[in-house]
Amino acid sequence: MNDTVDKLVIFLAKRDGIDKLVKTFQYVSKIAHWHAEAKNPEIAQRAKQWEVASGLSRKAFRTGRFLTGFNALRRSPGSTPTLRFLAVLANAGEMVYFFFDHFLWLSRIGTLNPNLARKMSFISAFGESFGYVFFIVLDFIALKEGVETEKKVAALEDKSAETKSESLRKIRADRVMRLMAVAANVADLIIGIADIEPNPFCNHAVTLGISGLVSAWSGWYRNWPS
Length: 226
Known about the structure:
Organism: Malus baccata (Siberian crab apple)
Oligomer: single chain
Helix content: over 70%
Main location: membrane
Family: Belongs to the peroxin-11 family.
Subcellular location: Peroxisome membrane
GO biological process, one term: regulation of peroxisome size
């Protein structure tokens, strides 16, 4: 019990930890609003207020987050030119997303012209979706490489069973993290598409709610202290 509490404290001390918790509030309240809208308008309105407050607080808390993408752009991670190019595209999209998200937040709280909100939302969502496509591609490449590495390690005969077991454990742990990243990015891509090109599927409250929770809980798993 004490170990769990300690890990929770560490998790909530991180910017991403707080973000995933508030994101959970945001999308749970979205589903609650949809569920209560027809039968209990008062509860639905309270859920909607909770959703809006959570969404705005996440935007405020992410102030300056675009600098993370800028730093990643400078480093251009990747072992090959192709991977470096994909990483640049992915991080550039994320940087656009977080940068214009500042203006979206300011327009929604009335500091900037509220009429800018729709335009800022589109640009931010477009950058987000663009970046996530390339993050997903990078993760699939890494997953493929991980499978190939696992086969090579399993076939080695000049290493002890303990060494092989430890190597395989690390490869499989990385695979789980990559799969969590893919799940989160696909979910966020759906949310981004709902802003870019509204449609009945992506914009349905249940689709958005489930996507938001998948993204939040995948991120929760990835950021939880080991």
